[in-house]
Amino acid sequence: MKHFLKHKNIVSWVLVSAIVLSILAYRDFNSIRTGLNAKATSLHRLVSQRADQHDAHLTGLSALASANEKPLEGMMLNLSETIRKFYSRIEHVDLIKLDKNNPETVFSTRYSHLAQDDTRAINDAAFASDGRLQIIPASNGYFLVKRSPNSDNARYGLALFINAEKLIENELDFNSNTQIDLKTNSGMTVYSVGQLEATNRFTRNISFSKVLGSRSQPLTLVVTLHLNVTDYIRWQTILPVILFMVLGIVFSQAFLTQRQKTRLAEERALLGEHEARIAQASRINGLGEMASGLAHEITQPLTAILSQSQAGVRLIDARPDDLETLKQVLGNISKQAKRGGDIVQRLRTWTTHSTETIETFDLNSVAEGIRDLTKADLKEKGVTIETTLHSNPLMIQADHVAIEQVIFNLSRNAVDAMEGVESGYLHLSTYIDQQYAIFMVKDNGKGIDEETLQHLFEPFYTTKEKGMGLGLSLCENIINRYNGQIEISNNDGGGVTTLVKLPLKDNGTGQ
Ligand code: ADP
Question: Residue 7 belongs to a domain with what CATH number?
């Protein structure tokens, strides 16, 4: 139970910490996502504005290309150079004379000549245009193509080559685990910067994706951040939680232990009280049987006092001068009166719920007391009693009345068991076994059956019609209190032997 409680406590703390950790991880994860969104939105705004500028450049250049019969090449060149000077992402400007079969480059600001494939691609895009600008993905960027003039009778294809790297260039300080992509609306990647690691169970990718705000270049900007578990479950977060958990476990364990101790102390106090009550009940229970013995005993000194005083009266009549004999008679009377007083005193000690008095005494003295107490009762029931006492005093340390009560209970059980037995025999003996003083109570009664043997020391277990079943549990409690043991077993030849073992005080010397 105790361990279960402690484990339950630890499990609860681990659970609480796991929940706290999850909440903190979720919070960190969200704040990273919010941070990414904020930066990506800024980038999106910047790139959209840049893209929008391309429209204006193309409009200006187109006007120069198709204003006259022949393009105003000189002016176009000037304008192109100016544009390139201020907008370095626009790498070159190309003008193609449209022809279904054989398009020609009219004008190009490239250092090298425009590749044949590019010329054809610009030509085809201009033909395909319905008035809107066309995008031709190329390595490192894209051509933005306008037909010129912007009608079905277009004669030229005008193209700006946009360097995508420069288009998305920014000072937003994205995390090194970020990939930025520019995609066409058909999903084709125009440009990609950064290389994401593959995700696994512990890593996550979070993305921002939005089409540029430019009507002419509806490219999608995708910003993806690769997160390792340590990005959102950080040591700065984990350590305080672990500390919190360890402190929680330590303090609550200490609290539980303290509470258990208090409870145990309370239980012990209650048990002590309970035991005292049982003792009292048992004493009163035994009282009925003891009373007849005592009544018998007390009549002995009373009878003696009566006969001695009658003898005294007769003596005064017959020999009034014989004071010596009269003194003897009076002495006898007072001795008997004292004996009567002792008997009454014993009865009082038994019935009062007195506090225990620990003393060192000879275990043999208990045997003598019991013998006196039970003699009359045994005689009435026809039970023979024999006592075999160890020749030396067996000094033990305990409450004398309590030990006497134990032996009395055991003797009473023995006598009860002899009911119906023809010649009952009760043997009380004392001896030494190693460091123990032993009191043995042996009977030749009906013995104890298997079932009863299992429950002997349980309170309220009895096989007797008028029994309370408290005797043996009380005896065991008392003997254990003085570090002793009580053992009950059936004899081979019938009957029961009970051994009460109590530690000898200083090897029995009593010193
Ligand atoms: P009670 O005497 O009120 O029944 P105890 O606790 O003293 O309560 O004894 C419990 C039971 O143990 C008795 O009812 C009886 O069956 C059995 N018992 C105890 N001592 C003996 C004995 N010497 N011989 C036979 N049975 C015994």
Answer: 3.30.450.20
